[in-house]
Amino acid sequence: MEDTTFFYSSVTLLFLIFVFKLWFLPTTRRRKNLPPSPRPSLPVIGHLHLLKHPMHRTFHDLAKKYGPIFSLRFGSRLVVVVSSASAAEGCFTKNDIVFANRPKLLMSKYFGYNYTTLAQAPYGDHWRNLRRFTAIEVFSSNRLNMFLSIR
């Protein structure tokens, strides 16, 4: 008798935890100041099921429905789509440093030597020094001419 009581109470507790997460988790996500997004997004693939060929027409249809700035989920990544010229100009002139950074992926941490390679480094002094070094030393015309026989 006590085994069934323990079983039913644990199942009830798990069900209540699941309902609590399902009920209150989406409200915490809505508190973020994000652009509008089409609903629903699927758990693993996000909004990838909405994308059809040609993609620019799909984005145009979504922009007509949700406005010139809207957000999509591509898998687990949040993507903001900007389809008006004035908004894109604002993104690339006023907020260019924010949009120049790359996402910090776990793979980049381990394979990119803790975000220190040119392809994985966040925008800043280290990235500018790496870019300057590659432009002057690695991709200079003198260095490229040295490897002409190999190429």
Q: Would you write up a description of this structure?
A:
With 151 residues, this protein is mainly α. It folds into three domains: 1-32; 36-100, no CATH class; 105-142, no CATH class. Helices cover 54% and strands 8% of the residues. The protein is built from seven helices and two strands. It has helices at residues 2-30, 55-66, 85-93, 96-100, 106-111, 125-138, 141-146, and strands spanning 69-74, 77-82. A two-stranded antiparallel ribbon has the order 1-2. 4% of the residues are buried. The model has no long low-confidence stretch (mean pLDDT 86).
Topology order in helix (H) and strand (E) letters: HHEEHHHHH
Helix-residue proportion: 40-55%
Q: Based on CA inertia axes, which overall geometry fits?
A: extended
Q: Provide the low-confidence segments as ranges.
A: none
Domain count: the total is 3
Protein name: Cytochrome P450
Keywords: Heme, Iron, Membrane, Metal-binding, Monooxygenase, Oxidoreductase, Transmembrane, Transmembrane helix
Transmembrane segments: 6-24
Subcellular location: Membrane
Descriptive labels:
151 residues, mainly alpha, 3 domains, two-stranded antiparallel ribbon, 2 strands, 8% strand, extended, transmembrane helix, Plant_Cytochrome_P450_Monoox, heme
Reconstruct the topology from this structure:
Elements: H1 2-30, H2 55-66, E1 69-74, E2 77-82, H3 85-93, H4 96-100, H5 106-111, H6 125-138, H7 141-146
Antiparallel strand pairs: 1-2
Question: Brief description of this entry?
Answer:
By secondary structure, this protein is mainly alpha-helical.
